[in-house]
Amino acid sequence: MTEALEMPAILAGHGIVYFGNDWFAENRTSSHHVARRLALLFPVLYVDSPGLRPPTASNRDLKRLWRKLAGARRPPQRLEGQLWHCTVPQIPYRRVPGIEAVNRAFGLWAVHRALRHVGFKKWISWFVVPHPGFMAKRLQEQLCVYYCIDDYAAHPGVDAERTARSDLALTATADQVFVAPPGMLEAKRAQNTSMVFAPHGVDVDLFRRAMDASTTVPEAARNLPHPVIGFFGLIGAWIDVELIEWLARSRPQWSFLLVGHAATDVSSLASMANVTLAGPQPYDALPGWAKAFDVAIIPYRRNQQVRNANPLKLREYLATGRQVVTVSNPEIERFAQWVRIADGREEFLSGIEQALQPESPEAALARIVAVEPMTWDNRVADVLKTVAQALSRRNAGV
Prior knowledge:
Blueprint lengths: L14 E6 L9 H9 L5 E5 L10 H14 L4 E4 L2 E5 L11 H20 L4 E5 L15 E6 L11 H14 L2 E4 L5 H7 L4 E2 L6 H4 L11 H4 L5 E5 L8 H10 L4 E5 L7 H4 L4 E5 L6 H6 L3 E4 L5 H4 L4 H9 L2 E4 L3 H4 L6 E2 L3 H11 L5 H11 L4 H20 L3
Parallel strand pairs: 1-2, 1-5, 2-4, 5-6, 6-7, 7-8, 9-10, 9-12, 10-11, 12-13, 13-14
Antiparallel strand pairs: 3-4
Helix pairs in contact: 12-15
């Protein structure tokens, strides 16, 4: 059951300055889901924050950099309803003397300019990423929120030391901290006693369409030989491409369907006859792709980033009713009753083979029921109650 989103009385009249991931990125993150729901209640200024890693000479990175530079010249643009968007690019060469000071000065100026344009009278700053955290408590906000959704310092290609410093500083500065990855709870609680566990949500109504007879499987997946072993999401450096290749070689009669932008080298997979790389697809189309899956997989590498991950696709897979085979981490282990957790290649292969055995319709329904209370509406409603309490405490000087 979804809890109705309501405006806590103390938050009425506020806008939200929301520092999130690239709004136009290929993959939909919790940053997008939360911002959209907040905008049902509040005017929201979504600030595209600079990437954690410096841009490369790749065509994708250059296009993205140009888009951000072009966007910086424009005033905030209305995306939908009360949701506004602006871009605050930063010079990526932060190790050059003086660049950091220029970036900070420009960032503060640009956000204040955007706030004047959208006409907020009072606002809450809301950070989902740590690197623009130098603006926390410097925007004349009524309250500062940090919703930590990932261990960003463990991401490949980032300046780990700098990112960790930004994360620590923002955690200590924020009035209210939320943490999605279970593996980070203990450390965050020591850094800020306001810390509240707030795992990701899921769009249950969307993903359960994979079970509907009326949902159409996209043409590219319609004629794949079954069984189809499926994945959707960003294919980044944290995806164990070698594991997928080994699985595909071990079972050439199976089809492997990977849906999502490839941000890492997948040339070995592209050359395999039983692997289909479908590329990025619209978010709302994912249930159709998932309908083609016989088993959904989460083939992560075993590293620090994955240990502290809270994978959105875990709940999304479960909401499709599909069987799931996955590696382990603290968040995934909370769902051990509804997924098959594998340790190593042979166990992963065995898990898929077990998942391909016939099961009752009730088993698929149980997976959907398990995540039904975890909707994004419910998550945001809970978070807003906590934010309202934090603002009340701050207003009372507690």
